[in-house]
Each structure stands twice: as C-alpha cells, then as structure tokens.
Amino acid sequence: MKIRTTAGQLAALIATAAVAAGCGSSNGQSTTNRAPGAVGQVSAAGTQARGGPSAVNRSKPPVIAAGPLLATLSGTGSEAIGALTEKTGVVLEWKTSSPPMQIFNSHGFLLVVSNLPSGRVRLAKGHYGNLHVGAKGPWTIQVHASA
C-alpha cells in the first residue's frame, strides 16, 4: 500500500474545504425509496413519510467485515490525504465526532458520504488518486485488508 501527499495539493485542499463547507447539510431525516409499484416512503427513524402501508422495514444494513489493520490516517476538518494504491481489495473504516463526513477524489468521485459518526466501505483493488476528506471536526480513517 502506498499513501503519498505532495505540496501541490494545497490548491486542491482549498477547493476541497470550500466544497465541503457547502456539502453534507441535511435535515437529519433520510428516506428510502421503495421498490417500483410500492406506495410511499419510510424515514430512517421508522415513521411513515408519505401515504401507504403502515409496515416498516427495520432491517439493519449488512456488517462489512474487516481484516488486519494496514494504515491509519487522522486529521481535523477538510484536507487532502494523498493517494491509495492497493493490489487487493481493502476496507476503509471512518470515524468522526462531528458528522457529516465525505471521502472523495479531485474529480468528484465519492467513496464515502455519511451523516453517521462511523462506518465502513469496501474498495476494489486499484489506484485512488488525490483523495480528500470533507469533515467539520476530527476524523480517523483506518485501511484494513478485506476479511
């Protein structure tokens, strides 16, 4: 695994901070679209958002298993974190005390967009260049081998 940062990313960092300052705002209520033909939407809190059946799907998302820890990155606020190159798939685990949090590249490809204080995402093998974190407070990213 190779993580690198360069002084040339300062302009990207400034642009990232400007983007992150305007991104991620939410009213705190998320909705899930139902399958075609279903009626209404249900909020994450389990209340009926629009008309339709009163049954609520309270299933939890699947747990993403992670293997051994490969690297840890941490910081505060929005900043560039360099590139990630992996020959096998990995799991990114993020934590922040001040959600929302975003992890994205300079082309706008979003790896993580979350209003939660922590989570995991699987990444396929490959090169992820010019990565940036968009956050309001302190954060930690751990790179794990896939389990």
The CATH architecture assignment of the domain at 8-26 and 64-146 turns out to be Sandwich
Distance between termini?
16 Å
- pLDDT average, as an integer? 73
Counting DSSP H or I runs of 4 or more residues, the number of helices is: 1
Order of strands across the main sheet: 1-5-10-7-8
User: CATH topology of the domain at 8-26 and 64-146, what is it called?
Assistant: Jelly Rolls
Largest sheet: 5 strands, antiparallel
Poorly predicted ranges (pLDDT <50, ≥5 residues)?
5-51
- How much of the sequence is in beta strands? over 45%
Give an overview of the whole structure.
- This protein has a domain at 8-26 and 64-146: Jelly Rolls (Sandwich).
- 9% of the residues lie in helices and 48% in strands.
- The chain has 1 helix and 11 strands; from the N terminus they run E-H-E-E-E-E-E-E-E-E-E-E.
- The strands form 3 sheets. A 5-stranded antiparallel beta sheet has the order 1-5-10-7-8. Strands 4-11-6-9 form a 4-stranded antiparallel beta sheet, with no helix packed on it. The protein has a two-stranded antiparallel ribbon with strand order 2-3.
- The longest helix has 13 residues, at 10-22.
- It starts with a strand and ends with a strand.
- Mean pLDDT is 73; it is low at 5-51.
Defining key terms:
9% helix, four-stranded antiparallel sheet, Jelly Rolls, globular, mainly beta, 147 residues, 1 helix, five-stranded antiparallel sheet
What does this entry show, briefly?
The protein has about 150 residues and is mainly beta. The protein has one helix and eleven strands.
